[in-house]
Structures are given as structure tokens and as C-alpha cells.
Amino acid sequence: MNKTALITGATSGIGKATAYEFAKHGIQLIICGRRQERLDSIKKKLEPLTKVHTLQFDVRNKTDVKNAINSIPDNFKTIDILINNAGNAHGLDPIQDGSIDDWDAMMDINVKGLLYVSKAIIPQMTERQSGHIINIGSSAGKEVYPKGNVYCGSKHAVLAITEGMRIDLNPYGIKVGAVNPGLVETEFSKVRFKGDAIADTVYKGFDALQAEDIAEIIYFVVSRPTHVNIADLLVFPTAQANSTTVKKEL
Ligand code: NDP
Ligand code: 8X3
């Protein structure tokens, strides 16, 4: 596929697997994250398959986001596909015990970071009257679970923003959609539980989704014909029925 994609959160999990999947199909890549050494090693692995440019920035810093996107070299500048994937949960606490720092992190990264990156890239898409934006939401954006309060709020916001983008960008022929996974075994729980051993138990006793499962779905979404836009997609592991119902065999 003769296209360029920018993927945020490409150093791990779903974003990294999507970079690998896109590279297999010859999509030129701009991979983003804070951990430069990981970006470098992914670039090295993928370069036999496609052209790769790395961008290191924290999506919370709007100036850095803007400067990073402005620094993209000419041969990568036309971004056909934006995958707004960077994000995480921080903590799992009842609202009365929640940490304000955790709340800030989730709203700043999952919601405001997504907006900063989109703001920097949408103008070139409206100018060309083409483009495809996929926001990685979550089942937590469709359903609130106990102690999920602010994370669920951030992902509900992602879905509302996705719908708003689709409406506002409709006159420009830009596709906008969300991919919403359930439980995917990535570094997500390590980050959520700040390295606590409880993270190792989250995906035990059932076959969780793997990052590659979601990456294949994202490629399917971007490879539909021009007149087809997959607007919203919810994906669970077979063992999961909703946020609180997971069939485990321990
Ligand atoms: P990972 O923790 O494996 O990956 C998160 C990615 O986001 C990393 O590449 C990380 O890169 C990047 N990131 C985090 N914070 C920042 C920041 N401040 N600035 C720039 N990049 C940042 O998690 P997943 O792959 O699971 O998560 C990807 C997305 O999928 C998230 O939006 C998450 O909410 C969503 N999701 C995950 C599910 C799951 O069960 N795993 C289910 C549903 C949705 P770096 O640290 O290098 O900056
Ligand atoms: C991640 C899925 O259920 O761990 O968005 O919140 S969950």
C-alpha cells in the first residue's frame, strides 16, 4: 500500500504491533513514543520492509507535539493515516481514593494528547481532502466498570471526540473511526499498576487478546476501499463478555 502512517505509542503493545503489520504491507511509517532506544530498534527491524522515520515526544506537551510534527522530513510529510494510539490507564482505585496525578495523566495523555496530535495533522488532511484517522478507544469507552472511573471517562471522551471528528471532517472526505479493544496483553497493566506484581495476574487463566490481533484489525480497517469507513469496532477476547464478565480457568 503506497501510503504513509503516523502511529503514536509505537514503542510497545498495540502501536508497535500495528507498525509491524503496516510494514508488512509496505506502508511507510512515522513511529512515535517517548523511548527513543525502542524507536531506534523498531526502525532497524522494519527498514528492510518499508521506510521508517522516528519522532520522540510526549503527547502531553503541546509545543513538543507541534515541533515534532513540523520537523517531519519532506519525504514523510504527507500523512495519509493517523493512528492515535498512545495512552494508558494509571491506577485502579475507587473515586474517593483516586490519585489526582493519575487522573491528570489519563486525561492529559488519552484525551488532550490525542487532540494535540490530531490538531497538528488535520490541516494537511483537510487541505488535500483525504486522510484516515483511527482513534484507539476501549471497551472502557462504552461501559464503566468498578474503579475504572477516570480511565473509563477518558475513553468515553475518545469516543465522543471520534464522533465529533467524523462529523466535522465529513465535508473533506476524511475517514474517522475508533477501534475499541477489550483485554489485550501488553504493557498496559504494568503501567496501570506501576510495576506491582498484580499486573501479572490480569491476563492469567484465559486467552487474552494479543497486540497482533488488534494490529491485524487496524490494517483491515485502513485497507477498505475508499467508499468504506469502519466507524466503530468493539473487539473482545472470546473469554470476555463485557468489562466485568471474563471466563477464567485457574
Ligand atoms: P502499552 O503500555 O503497551 O503501550 C502504550 C504506548 O503509549 C507506548 O508505546 C507508550 O510509549 C505510549 N505512551 C504512553 N504515554 C505516552 C506519552 N505521555 N507520550 C507519548 N507516548 C506515550 O499499552 P497498549 O498497547 O495496551 O495501549 C495502547 C492503547 O490501547 C492505549 O490508548 C490504551 O488505552 C488502549 N487500550 C488498551 C487495552 C489493553 O487491554 N491493553 C484495551 C483497550 C484499549 P512511551 O512509553 O515510549 O512513550
Ligand atoms: C483497556 C481495557 O478493561 O483493562 O482499555 O480497561 S480494560
TrEMBL record:
Origin species, per record, is Yeosuana aromativorans
A single Gene Ontology MF term assigned here is: oxidoreductase activity, acting on the CH-OH group of donors, NAD or NADP as acceptor
Keyword Manganese on entry: no
Q: Which UniProt keywords apply?
A: Oxidoreductase
Domain of life of the organism encoding this protein? Bacteria
Protein name (database record): Short-chain dehydrogenase
What Pfam families does this protein's entry cite? adh_short
Record keywords: Transmembrane included? no
Similarity comment: family membership: Belongs to the short-chain dehydrogenases/reductases (SDR) family.
